[in-house]
């Protein structure tokens, strides 16, 4: 068991009762912290400055009741055990507290022996959970793939690099098109690193406005800006000792890049509204679908930050460069969504799978996943056929000449339409840009002109779709 004392937060608005509990439980070898009302107790838990092992809380308090505080604490951290104590020992109140997530329920006046046994049981349960997790980690052998599917040469080479890079503490930059699985690779780096037992925190830099990004990354003090009603730890402090993924870092402004660079150099953060510098130990993993080197040369990205982040580069291959993985990925998604939607889908027809392997997949794995989900939900038979992927037939084989692909002769949609018609030809020798343009415009047409739906089917953001439409003169 861990050598430091277990930390217990006592929340009670009766000062005499608080003092008594601190003396009593302190004598049992626990480190006791006190809060004089439910609101203060909730704040102490959410601030995260102290990692409590359990909370002992009175039910009846003036400013915020124990029931209300219980709901807030459970919503914030469901794994933190909360024991409710009250003089009102009605069965209804006990049941309500337990339903809302209380670990146990004690009545006043407290039976000290029962209190001691209850606390010991909580601590023992936490210890056993920790031991079980540790044992599982010790029993697991070799590289943890973290839900990464695929054995193509491209993925095998990538994962070999990931395994070597994970063992170090060097900064990592993951590059590649949208939808290729950059976040999964980042997770694999953390899961196989010496920091794997510590937090892995993710933040999408493109999803948060510039005015809020600094607060999200570095935290803020209470009252530091409008709406800052309580002190908050930033993502870097949440990831202390572990790893942080800065997704879409190419979207970060130059001003924020300068602040991030300082954090990486000094290994300390300054929360918004504070003058205190807080030391932080975090491994930074960044990802982007943009060319940061070119951006740095053009003045859109700080060159010093680029080289600070880019110690090791992991380049994600697009799905059309790892087509060997399409069958196993497709089957994985089919089983996942069939179970989720309670559909009895047995597999794919040969022509559907053949067409999927040949399709360019401009939205990469995300597009494949979304397409299989749609097919599973709308399928009318036991097997997913080409009719369940109409955009593939209409977009992949549209040109006028018959061509060959390996040992298979393709006569356009005739091989994949399911009705024997022969119109169009293969995509062999067709520029990839043309294939992508046909895929985007065809998906938009099949979605009835709904750009949000078309973006979802392609596995790209609506913003990216609008950029492509503008490029095609279709905005």
TrEMBL record:
<dbReference type="InterPro" id="IPR003593">
    <property type="entry name" value="AAA+_ATPase"/>
</dbReference>
<dbReference type="InterPro" id="IPR001789">
    <property type="entry name" value="Sig_transdc_resp-reg_receiver"/>
</dbReference>
<dbReference type="Pfam" id="PF00158">
    <property type="entry name" value="Sigma54_activat"/>
</dbReference>
<keyword id="KW-0067">ATP-binding</keyword>
<dbReference type="GO" id="GO:0006355">
    <property type="term" value="P:regulation of DNA-templated transcription"/>
</dbReference>
<keyword id="KW-0010">Activator</keyword>
<dbReference type="InterPro" id="IPR002078">
    <property type="entry name" value="Sigma_54_int"/>
</dbReference>
<dbReference type="InterPro" id="IPR027417">
    <property type="entry name" value="P-loop_NTPase"/>
</dbReference>
<feature type="region of interest" description="Disordered">
    <location>
        <begin position="400"/>
        <end position="427"/>
    </location>
</feature>
<keyword id="KW-0238">DNA-binding</keyword>
<dbReference type="InterPro" id="IPR009057">
    <property type="entry name" value="Homeodomain-like_sf"/>
</dbReference>
<feature type="domain" description="Response regulatory">
    <location>
        <begin position="7"/>
        <end position="123"/>
    </location>
</feature>
<feature type="modified residue" description="4-aspartylphosphate">
    <location>
        <position position="58"/>
    </location>
</feature>
<dbReference type="InterPro" id="IPR025943">
    <property type="entry name" value="Sigma_54_int_dom_ATP-bd_2"/>
</dbReference>
<dbReference type="Pfam" id="PF25601">
    <property type="entry name" value="AAA_lid_14"/>
</dbReference>
<dbReference type="GO" id="GO:0043565">
    <property type="term" value="F:sequence-specific DNA binding"/>
</dbReference>
<dbReference type="InterPro" id="IPR011006">
    <property type="entry name" value="CheY-like_superfamily"/>
</dbReference>
<dbReference type="GO" id="GO:0000160">
    <property type="term" value="P:phosphorelay signal transduction system"/>
</dbReference>
<dbReference type="InterPro" id="IPR002197">
    <property type="entry name" value="HTH_Fis"/>
</dbReference>
<dbReference type="Pfam" id="PF00072">
    <property type="entry name" value="Response_reg"/>
</dbReference>
<dbReference type="InterPro" id="IPR025944">
    <property type="entry name" value="Sigma_54_int_dom_CS"/>
</dbReference>
<feature type="domain" description="Sigma-54 factor interaction">
    <location>
        <begin position="148"/>
        <end position="377"/>
    </location>
</feature>
<keyword id="KW-0597">Phosphoprotein</keyword>
<keyword id="KW-0805">Transcription regulation</keyword>
<keyword id="KW-0547">Nucleotide-binding</keyword>
<keyword id="KW-0804">Transcription</keyword>
<dbReference type="GO" id="GO:0005524">
    <property type="term" value="F:ATP binding"/>
</dbReference>
<protein>
    <submittedName>
        <fullName>Fused DNA-binding response regulator in two-component regulatory system with ZraS: response regulator sigma54 interaction protein</fullName>
    </submittedName>
</protein>
<dbReference type="InterPro" id="IPR058031">
    <property type="entry name" value="AAA_lid_NorR"/>
</dbReference>
<dbReference type="Pfam" id="PF02954">
    <property type="entry name" value="HTH_8"/>
</dbReference>
């Amino acid at each position: 068991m861990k050598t430091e004392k277990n930390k217990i937060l006592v929340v009670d608005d009766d000062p005499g009762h608080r003092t008594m509990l601190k003396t009593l439980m302190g004598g049992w070898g626990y480190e006791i912290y006190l809060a004089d009302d439910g609101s203060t107790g909730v704040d102490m838990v959410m601030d995260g400055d102290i990692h409590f092992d359990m909370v002992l809380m009175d039910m009846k308090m003036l400013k915020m009741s124990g029931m209300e505080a219980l709901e807030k604490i459970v919503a914030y951290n469901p794994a933190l055990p909360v024991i409710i104590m009250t003089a009102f020992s009605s069965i209804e109140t006990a049941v309500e507290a337990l339903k809302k997530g209380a670990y146990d329920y004690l009545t006043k006046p407290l039976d000290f022996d029962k209190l001691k046994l209850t606390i010991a049981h909580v601590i023992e349960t936490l210890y056993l959970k920790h031991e079980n997790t540790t044992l599982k980690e010790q029993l697991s052998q070799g590289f943890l793939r973290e839900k990464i599917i695929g054995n193509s040469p491209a993925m095998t080479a990538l994962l070999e690099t990931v395994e070597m890079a994970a063992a170090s503490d060097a900064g990592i930059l993951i590059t590649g098109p949208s939808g290729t699985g950059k976040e999964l690779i980042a997770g694999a780096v953390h899961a196989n690193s010496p920091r794997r037992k510590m937090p892995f925190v993710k933040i999408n830099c493109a999803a948060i406005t510039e005015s809020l990004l600094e607060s999200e990354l570095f935290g803020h003090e209470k009252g530091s800006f409008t709406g800052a009603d309580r002190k908050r730890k930033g993502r870097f402090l949440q990831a202390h000792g572990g790893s942080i993924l800065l997704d879409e870092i190419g979207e970060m402004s130059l001003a924020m890049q300068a602040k991030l660079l300082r954090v990486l150099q000094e290994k300390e953060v300054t929360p918004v509204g504070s003058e205190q510098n807080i030391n932080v130990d975090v491994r930074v993993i960044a990802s982007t679908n943009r060319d940061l080197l070119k951006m740095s040369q053009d003045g859109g990205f700080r060159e010093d930050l680029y080289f600070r982040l880019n110690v090791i580069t992991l380049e994600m291959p697009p799905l059309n460069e790892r087509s060997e993985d399409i069958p196993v990925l497709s089957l994985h998604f089919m089983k996942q969504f069939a179970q989720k939607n309670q559909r009895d889908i047995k597999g794919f027809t040969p022509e559907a799978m053949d067409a999927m392997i040949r399709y360019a997949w401009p939205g990469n794995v995300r597009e494949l996943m979304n397409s299989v989900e749609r097919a599973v939900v709308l399928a009318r038979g036991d097997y997913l056929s080409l009719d369940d992927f109409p955009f593939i037939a209409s977009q992949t084989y549209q040109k006028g000449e018959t061509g060959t692909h390996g040992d298979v002769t393709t006569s356009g949609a005739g091989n994949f339409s399911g009705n024997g018609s022969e119109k169009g030809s293969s995509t062999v020798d067709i520029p990839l840009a043309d294939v992508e343009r046909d895929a985007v415009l065809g998906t938009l047409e099949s979605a009835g002109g709904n750009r949000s739906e078309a973006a979802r089917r392609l596995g790209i953001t609506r913003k990216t779709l609008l950029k492509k439409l503008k490029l095609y003169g279709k905005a």
